[in-house]
From TrEMBL:
Single GO MF descriptor: oxidoreductase activity
NCBIfam families per UniProt: benzo_boxB
Organism: marine metagenome
An annotated GO BP: phenylacetate catabolic process
This protein's name: Benzoyl-CoA oxygenase component B
UniProt-listed InterPro entries: Aromatic_CoA_ox/epox, Benzoyl_CoA_Oase_BoxB, Ferritin-like_SF, RNR-like
Any one GO cellular component localisation term in the record: cytosol
Length: 471
């Protein structure tokens, strides 16, 4: 199905056939654009950016690349094609046809999940809004804007569901998406990590590696939902998420590469003296972004998650590939639990551990990229190893938020934490140093001194390509 861009709101949901919904969305559209102009990427209004736009929702060939003036980007509503035979794969409604409308009894839970998902999308755009001013290269600037417009579209995806399926309170929730703001003292974003700052490009790459990866896992679970429109929205969003994580993984990898090159070139590890980011600082940023993203999976034992699963509204990642009864009424799952002053392994009812299971999958996935970064270090002949901290480290949600641990997960006293956390998490001084490196490089083919050029290409265009035109 080819998307028609001549419509006011491009879509593949036959918006023309539902005047009421069309009017509601057309009322929301200027509010959205207003928000984008106020809190979206700064100084980007006149830029023409070499962006990818969806032209079809089919598996292959949906991407079209061209220069786009940023505020003229065509946000729209795209769902993967429907499968009329789809059934619910888990929970008490297992085997029944997927729902095409919201079941009344699950309305508030579904709305809450959609609102929480939707809220993260504009939050990340707000967090990243100043980065355009100090990009390390045009290639990176283009990637930033690509991520930003797609997160904007992800908001559209959730707002569509709210307005199409939740009537008046859905419309109110859609408005509230533009009223909460990242870091706002009175009206913050819903989830913790989305109120943190993303002030520099190292933070941006760590964010897209670790926090967008939460997106992959949450969207993957929501893609299993018995509520078919939510499932189809998330499936299409997932196709875009892969690029966000690529930006993160390759971005951090390129910094690691540059750091190693500087160490070898100058034959010392005083990387800062040579304008790079030293490996211990990278480790601290990794510790920070991993730990706040780990919080995004909620409590280890969650009755919310059990209800979502049992009622068929939020599944597990790749639900159908898991070999069990997909009911979880009688099975158990091993989790780490705080027991007195120890962290111990216990078996708990699987239904209550759905969040923790997803966190396990997430941590394993995070580790794959860390291994690839370590490979770069190893190939440079340097003796250093980046590591994911223990899941109990620096937590604010869940049982481990009650204690302090070192990055290896050893429980320590508050006094020891106060003494040592500057070795584990970025300090003010680290942040100021990284910030001092953030000088814009906007000449085609040029790159900042703290990061290596990319190996890959965007749509076969070389690094020297003029990815952004400044007007
Ligand atoms: N911060 O029973 P629990 C993305 C609250 S990222 C603040 O475990 P549940 C993206 C929780 O709300 C993907 N509060 O909760 C990435 C609950 O509150 P109540 C985002 C938190 O519901 C980058 C209480 O603690 N999508 O797309 O099972 C760029 C008890 O917790 C937090 C989703 O999150 C927190 N971190 O699990 C752009 C999917 N964690 O009931 C985009 C939708 C928990 O006591 N959301 N709480 O008032 C969900 O599935 C669930 O809401 C959560 C929480 C998994 C987040
Ligand atoms: Fe997103
Ligand atoms: Fe994303």
């Amino acid at each position: 199905m080819i998307i028609d861009y001549n419509q006011k709101i491009p879509n593949n949901v036959n918006l023309n056939g539902d005047r009421r919904l069309q009017r509601a969305l057309e009322r929301w559209q200027p509010e959205y654009l207003n928000w984008w102009n106020k809190l979206g990427p700064e100084t980007s209004k006149e830029h023409e950016v070499y962006l990818r736009t969806a032209i079809s929702v089919e598996k292959d060939g949906w991407a079209h690349f061209d220069y786009v003036k940023m505020p003229e980007y065509r946000w729209g509503i795209f769902l993967t094609p429907s499968d009329p035979t789809r059934t619910i794969d888990f929970g008490i409604h297992k085997g029944q046809p997927a729902w095409q409308v919201v079941p009344g009894e699950y309305r508030s839970e579904l709305r809450r999940l959609i609102v929480t998902q939707g809220d993260t999308e504009p939050a990340s755009v707000e967090q990243q809004r100043y980065l355009g001013k100090n990009c390390p290269s045009l290639y990176d600037l283009r990637n930033l804007f690509q991520v930003n417009v797609e997160e904007g579209r992800h908001l559209w995806a959730m707002v569509y569901l709210l307005q199409a399926y939740f009537g008046r309170d859905g419309r109110e929730e859609a408005d509230a998406m533009l009223e909460r703001h990242s870091g706002d003292a009175d009206k913050p974003r819903i989830l913790g990590a989305f109120n943190e700052k993303t002030p520099d490009w190292l933070s941006f790459f760590m964010f897209t590696y670790f926090t967008d990866r939460d997106g992959k896992f949450q969207l993957g679970s929501l893609a299993e939902s018995g509520f078919d429109p939510l499932s189809r929205s998330c499936r299409f969003m997932l196709t875009e998420e892969a690029h966000h994580m690529f930006v993160g993984e390759s971005g951090v990898g390129r910094i690691v590469q540059r750091t190693c090159d500087l160490m070898n070139e100058h034959n010392n590890d005083d990387v800062r003296k040579n304008g790079g980011i030293d490996l211990p600082t990278l480790q601290k940023y990794l510790n920070f972004h991993f730990s706040i993203s780990t919080d995004l999976f909620g409590q280890e034992l969650s009755t919310n998650a059990a209800t979502y699963y049992n009622t068929g509204i939020k599944g597990r990642l790749s639900e159908t590939k898991i070999d069990d009864d997909h009911l979880l009424h009688d099975s158990s799952y091993p989790i780490l639990e705080l027991s007195g002053d120890k962290i111990v392994n216990v078996e708990v009812p699987a239904l209550n551990a759905v969040n923790e299971r997803l966190r396990d999958d997430y941590i394993a996935d995070c580790d794959l990229g860390v291994r690839r970064w370590n490979k770069i270090i190893e190939e440079a002949g340097i003796d250093y190893c980046l590591k994911l901290p223990h899941r109990a480290f620096n937590r604010r949600i869940g049982q481990f938020s009650e204690i302090q641990t070192d990055p290896a997960g050893k429980i320590i006293t508050q006094t020891d934490w106060d003494k040592s956390h500057a070795e584990w998490l970025p300090t003010q001084e680290d942040r100021e140093y990284v910030q001092s490196l953030m000088q814009p490089v906007t000449e085609p083919g040029k790159i900042a001194g703290w990061i290596s050029p990319p190996k890959g290409r965007i749509n076969r265009q070389p690094f020297e390509f003029e990815f952004v035109l400044f007007n």
